[in-house]
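Let's do one together. I've listed all components of the complex below, 800 residues spread over two lines.
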Amino acid sequence: MSYHSLSLEEAIRYAANLPGIFPENADLQVREIGDGNLNLVFHIKDSRSGASVIMKQALPYAKVVGESWPLTLDRARIESEALQLQESLCPGLVPHVYAFDQELALTVMEDLSDHIIMRKGLIEGNRYPLFAEHVGKFMAHTLFYTSDLGMNQQAKKQQVKRFVNPELCKITEDLIFDDPYTDSSNNNYNPLIREEVEKLWRDEELHLEVALLRESFLTHAEALLHGDLHTGSIFITPESTKMIDPEFAYYGPMGFDIGAVVANLLLNYAGQEGWIKDAGQRSEFRQYLLDTVRDVWGHFSRNFVQLWERDNVDRMARTPGYRDLYMKKILRDTIGFAGCKMVRRIVGLAHVADIDTIADPQVRAHAETIALNIGKALIKLNRKAESIEEVIAIAEQYAK
Amino acid sequence: MSYHSLSLEEAIRYAANLPGIFPENADLQVREIGDGNLNLVFHIKDSRSGASVIMKQALPYAKVVGESWPLTLDRARIESEALQLQESLCPGLVPHVYAFDQELALTVMEDLSDHIIMRKGLIEGNRYPLFAEHVGKFMAHTLFYTSDLGMNQQAKKQQVKRFVNPELCKITEDLIFDDPYTDSSNNNYNPLIREEVEKLWRDEELHLEVALLRESFLTHAEALLHGDLHTGSIFITPESTKMIDPEFAYYGPMGFDIGAVVANLLLNYAGQEGWIKDAGQRSEFRQYLLDTVRDVWGHFSRNFVQLWERDNVDRMARTPGYRDLYMKKILRDTIGFAGCKMVRRIVGLAHVADIDTIADPQVRAHAETIALNIGKALIKLNRKAESIEEVIAIAEQYAK
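Okay, and this is what the predicted structure of the assembly comes out as:
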């Protein structure tokens, strides 16, 4: 079937013909549940057996604030290949892919309707005691085993080739590593923080660090990244965590994924200004978020070191002292990228609901200022950082 | 024509049929002038008009010290595409490619028989007053315009894909960044320096630096490198310099190319122990070599900075302070890679004639020890280096 966006009827017919998913006598029901910006997302369920799948079809454009950007359908291939690779490296932490249709840019995958989007869960004040363990393990396994440390170094080069992803990378390069630091028409911010934003545009010490982080994003092909690992790309329950939507997957610096997780926990942390009114309760939830930041790094780094000791394929990487330098580099990148990802969510094109849905503009401005201050401080810290505790201290300092 | 290695007769027939190179009534003469290890190289000349070309055909294996390694024919495509790209960025400094035949892995290119291999020229004591200017310009232009600084950053990612080169990179990874630092069966060294070599195997401070440089080679996709820019890959006359044989081309750290040039000048410098008997004359030629090292860096960096000012496509790269940090990183990488390339030519599988053809094993051991000491010192200096003058000082120190 040549590419066209599927109608609901076509989606049902397509699903009914998939081998081994639905019984012969299935009574399939379909709902389109995507946000319609980038993809169609069909939820298809057999009302008799209860069996269900998700079919995600890439659209050839992206609608962002009304504008329509053409976008390659190849991102569907990248997403489905990344999901399958991640599942093979780290079973249970991504949705299972049943099938991929290159022509239709369509992925058939596990239905996770019993999970909710983590961002929503955090805004509702839920806690996820297993999240840090799960995401730490996910990042350690996917990053280690796709890097020159954990896989054949010639096969890695072929894998780099498979995951060359220029169009999606460009979105990151512009929206994270450029626009927020100049008066770009792509920017979008609360007029109440205009003064703070203008300071950002003039802060050359900050720009220097961002230029270095941008360089790392552009050139350091360390591992296959998820590439967009914010809390909106994580489906969660108290018992289960699933990383979804890796259409930004490409070979880049490991700290970019870890930084995304840290940044989004801290964005929620800043946003609590608008959600929990009681100061004591707010402070307690914030403590939970900071503990989670610490634990994400802790689980990641312990898992990563364990894999290093067990499965390192690079003789030279066993040189005494090298692993410690490597872990420090990941930490520093994590902190720098976390900062960039916070700043862009306040000043740049795409925001986060944790802060943007705070109704009172004054309260929102306060939350935004907290996030901006933490983000800037992390960016300025990055090359000097020695411990994740410095991140916690910065977050505490600006949310007093 | 499906792949097979061409006979002399076939080579003539092939050349005669090339459009626009030889006249109708040409009387073509052929000689096979390759070393037979990796490629066939046919020199084809019309004895009437004097017109001539080189036809280089890749062989599907490499013969290195008797062993036969299978090697991809795709390296011929990489070489011809790299040559054409380099010529477009920097005319006059590489042989012109007339045609490329993918099936036969055959490149038809400009005949440079009036040039000699620079390594040979230096061993004979020749000086090349324009070399530093030429190679500095070549490296600045090819590295700048294939990097995220000098070309569209999305097109660069597609170019990275075209130049993924796992097999040739593996040779570098093993022979430069691994074998020399352990008792590998690939190693090959003068028994008279066995003690020095064993020290190298135990020197963990050195191994740590090599591990970091290896990581940079494996992951830092900064620019399209020549990938093997030693003085045996340079055809030269006092007026003209041509960089040849870029079959190792791939996206890597810029300092790797510059380091290759520096290392090979310094290997000749060490080798002078065996060539110029008169101490005064030897010291004078060595001064010329050190001046050339200084000038190579000087021409490279001045050209590179000029291109940066004129043609930088990255807004963030114009941040004050960034360019200086970038140049310092290139300098440090240059020094580290130069050191690695010196050590591997003394201890590893493939040596250089500048040292290896010194007949007296004692004199050779002396030259080898000088090269090894300079190489180790450069490797240990790399992350701390501030100026090319430190390289000169190290070279002078060990050749006293």
